[in-house]
Design a protein that fits this description.
Helix content: 25-40%
CATH topology: TIM Barrel
Bound molecules: iron/sulfur cluster
Oligomer: single chain
Radius of gyration: 20 Å
Order of helices and strands: HHHHHHEEEHHEHEHHEHEHEHEE
Number of helices: 14
Low-confidence stretches: 1-15
Distance between the termini: 45 Å
CATH architecture: Alpha-Beta Barrel
Length: 347
């Protein structure tokens, strides 16, 4: 892809949404996000040392991965920091807990072809990468067999044919891994492929990158979304108000100016955000960053994450306090995914 230069910006100025986005305060060097990924912490000793905490053993077969911008929001010297709890492995991960299994959502059974999953009417998931910029200890895909799902070039033709032939589908959801781990060039290619299918009008991206490495929101990415005929929706995954800072807000403002609809989903996590005040503050801060709270997910029962579980009773008490203290549009829906159901199930 040709990089954006001053000249190309002038050419693109016929697009008002893009103009507004490009008027934002984005740093022109943000294409260096890949460098930030490469320099991430991958070792528990290095993580603890960076935070001034005593060393401990590494218990899990799910590796540590913490990028610098996220690390900078973790409080030094605090072993109970809510962001640290989301990224550090503990001995609890290797305990067998009844009911917690490797594939809690049984997603393999919903695959239409390699890389293409349909769980609900009208929308499909494309598994475009198995890579992430952070390894979240509660991840429901922490044991996911990405090697069996990632599409080859032949699979892409099958995927496009399957989408073309099914006029009931109007939305494509890019998933992973984290779909924004793809280069802008590859993302553009996928968006262009989807654009060729007349009955698809929406592209949705679920990503944790805008919060863990806000530098990922490059001008090129904004250009791709702003120029597409598809309505773009970005669902961020933010669990705690401490994850939001000015760099995240600036990235979100740029996306919002490009007419990207911004929604957030959180996972309800014990000792991270199972508190009505923390979640209410999160909703208010999301709103300030132009993001609407969308879902609060109950934990999926994935092996290795049972220590994050919050009971249904406690979850409902938290929601009750939030409903009483926030306007309705700032109260996320408390849901659970039950394999085979026609939609997310409200709790
Ligand atoms: S970024 Fe998403 S897919 Fe990746 S580990 Fe975290 S929750 Fe899982």
């Amino acid at each position: 892809m040709i990089p954006l230069t001053d000249v190309s910006l002038q050419v693109l100025s016929t697009n008002p949404a893009l103009d507004r986005a490009l008027d934002s305060d984005l740093d022109p060097e943000q294409a260096s996000w890949q460098k930030i990924v490469n320099e991430s912490i991958r070792d528990i000793s290095a993580l603890l040392q960076a935070l001034g905490l005593p060393d401990q053993s590494h218990y899990s077969n799910f590796p540590i991965l913490v990028p610098g911008p996220y690390l900078s929001r973790i409080e030094r010297g605090n072993p109970n920091d809510p962001l640290l709890r989301q990224v550090i492995s503990t001995v609890q991960e290797v305990r067998d807990v009844p009911g917690y299994i490797e594939q809690p959502l049984n997603e393999s059974t919903f695959a239409k072809t390699s890389g293409l999953i349909q769980k609900y009417h009208g929308r499909v998931l494309l598994i475009v990468t198995g890579s992430c910029a952070i390894n979240c200890r509660y991840c429901f895909r922490r044991h996911f067999p990405y090697q069996d799902f990632q599409p080859t070039s032949k699979d892409w033709q099958r995927i496009i044919d399957a989408l073309m032939n099914d006029t009931s589908i109007n939305e494509v959801i890019l998933s992973g891994g984290d779909p924004l781990m793809m280069s802008d060039k590859r993302l553009k290619w996928i968006v262009q492929q989807v654009e060729t299918i007349p009955h698809i009008d929406t592209i949705r991206i679920h990503s944790r990158l805008p919060v863990v490495i806000p530098q990922r929101i490059t001008k090129t990415l904004i250009e791709i979304l702003a120029e597409s005929r598809l309505k773009a929706v970005l669902v961020t995954h933010i669990n705690h108000p401490q994850e939001l800072d000015e760099t995240v807000s600036n990235a979100m403002l740029a996306l919002q100016r490009a007419d990207v609809l911004l929604l957030n989903q959180s996972v309800l996590l014990k000792d991270v955000n199972n508190d009505a005040e923390i979640l209410s503050t999160l909703s208010k801060q999301l709103f300030k960053a132009n993001i609407l709270p969308y879902y609060l997910h109950a934990l999926d029962p994935v092996a290795g994450a049972a220590h994050f579980d919050v009971s249904g009773k406690e979850a409902e008490e938290i929601m009750s306090v939030m409903r009483a203290s926030l306007p309705g549009y700032l109260v996320p829906k408390l849901v659970k995914e039950v394999p085979g159901q026609p939609s997310k199930s409200p709790l």
